[in-house]
Amino acid sequence: MTFLRAVAPIQLVTADGKAAKAPDSAAIALDVQGLTVSYGQTPAVFSIDANVPVGSMTAIIGPNGAGKSTLLKAVLGIIPRLSGTTQVFGQPVAQARNKIAYVPQRASVDWDFPTRVIDVVMMGLYRDVGLLNFIGREHRKRALDCLRRVGMVDFATRQVVQLSGGQQQRVFLARALAQDAELYLLDEPFAGVDAATEKAIVDVLKALKASGKTVVCVHHDLTTVTGYFDHVLMINVRKIAEGPVETAFTAESLQATYGGRLATVQIDQLRLPVA
Amino acid sequence: MWQVLEPLLLQSGYNATLVTIGACLLGLAAGSAGTFLFLRKRALVSDAVAHATLPGVGLAFIVMVALGGDGRYTMGLLVGSAITAGIGLWLVEWTARQTRLSEDAAIGAVLSVFFGFGVVLLTVVQTMTSGRQAGLESVLLGSTAGMLFDDALVIAVGGAVTVATVFALRRPLTIVSFDPEFAAASGINVRWTDLAMMALVMAVTVIGLKIVGLILIVALLIIPPVTARFWTDQTNHVVWMAGLFGALSGYIGTAISASAPALPTGPIIVLVSFALFLASLMFAPARGVVASVWRHRQFQLQVHRRQGLLALARGEPIFDRLTMTVLQRADLVRPDGVATDAGRAQAAKALRDEKRWEVVRTLHQDLAIAGRYDGLTPIEAVLTPDEIAEVDRQIGPPVGV
Q1: Fewest CB atoms within 10 Å of the CB: A215, B8, B86, B94?
Q2: Shortest Cα distance from B184 to chain A (angstroms)?
Q3: pLDDT over 70 (residue A13)
Q4: Which pTM value belongs to this model?
């Protein structure tokens, strides 16, 4: 506990006075308070607070093992939490599921599964289709439309096992689009995809943001943070900094997040918003 | 031959007909319920559940005799086996979740301990002085000799409920099998879906005790879906095909075992389902071995032909003997290695297509078109004549070889 207090002043974000006070709850898409998750006796994330503004494009960054994916999964209730609360648009997550879309890590599933691209996207329509209703023309049209948005409509009847990594990632994104949500949570959407796919995904995400949706990505590539995102949450088990990229994504908070692992030279190469 | 045909046509008597119908329904239920077990990669959990039915059978017998009833009352035995199977399942889940043991260790422990306990109970039952215990051990491998109408009815009702449940839950079962994290995030209760899946497995195991027995039931749960997987790439098709293969195994298996006096029904059914598996492994058009080898060979020949044509067009020597053979067989090259007129024409076209592809791949960042380049797909299959003409304008006029 004493150690916690010691690191608390590093929360430079609070300097701008915004994140320190609880902002108007209507403008907050994802509100996390004191979230702790642990595997065994070691906390994977410890007492994390976060306020993701509505309409923002937020990056969750931090080193390997910092608990980024764990945070996302705990928010969604996929893994149990030890303590803390999460609210989505002012509602508990269980009541707001139809406002949340989720893109898990591509490597988390076995792609040699008997299913076609279109069937995977249809999984995103599950909440609409339900248990027993038959899938109608309207549903198929919506699924194809989502595939079109990620540039994969020609692959609709392909087996998912035949897809490249980047194509699989796009299919996962299309499935999230089919969920037609307000808040999109993506776990490393750019991991192991080529530049063309990365651009295609970013375009889709920016279009979502432009239409007022909120996008949250677990992100690894520090060089693209300023280009892609406007809000950032930096964690390493504990929260290090949070806020608009211009004020929170600083050399100090990067140093605090990554420790000595990030050489000063590397930080200098990043196009940091604050000189 | 005729001995097999008679039961196939349900012509060999009341008991044999009951067994045939029962085995069909059991196969149908086991195949369709087993599909999701297979897709969720939890086949061995079902083996633990099946073995955990044995102590339930022994305990149910003892309790029913102690209460002064008939120790072999079917429903009583089924309920008893379902209870211990449920405990076994719960133990596997609990061990895997609460301790650091992996699921396979939990399965091994539960399977052997419950089975051992069951064998002890059956031995105790043998020494009891009342209760018509003879033949109780038939739950191990099934015994259809004394099958009654009631037994067939249990299978029919249980099987129908199982198949209906699989149909009703097919969507959550599919999503959970493919991507449990996404399922949970969508609000599907993954734990309950998994439990429903295992409940289906338990139902199949329990109603299958009479025909296949608890040791071999896992074969009927797993082999039909694996067989069906060779024929299709869509989950819902795997489900009904697995049911079909299961029913077929039950049907043919009972017929074969009825054709001779000493053939055990359950094991024969399992062997028949294995034969169907083997046939599918070899000959299924989508994923069978023969089809794969054939397709691979065709593809190889196409590649050699293309490489040969490009070599001709560029005036390079051809060293690969297979390439030479392919070209000679198609009369593109004379036996002395010189290109024929047809060969030269096709070579020029191949080279031109290659150049066109190069342009297309730089112009179209669109995956749908550029992604189809494999060195073999004719450019006409991807672009319209107008688009090809446009590409040709960029390349310049054709050059003869």
Answers
A1: B94
A2: 6
A3: no
A4: 0.85
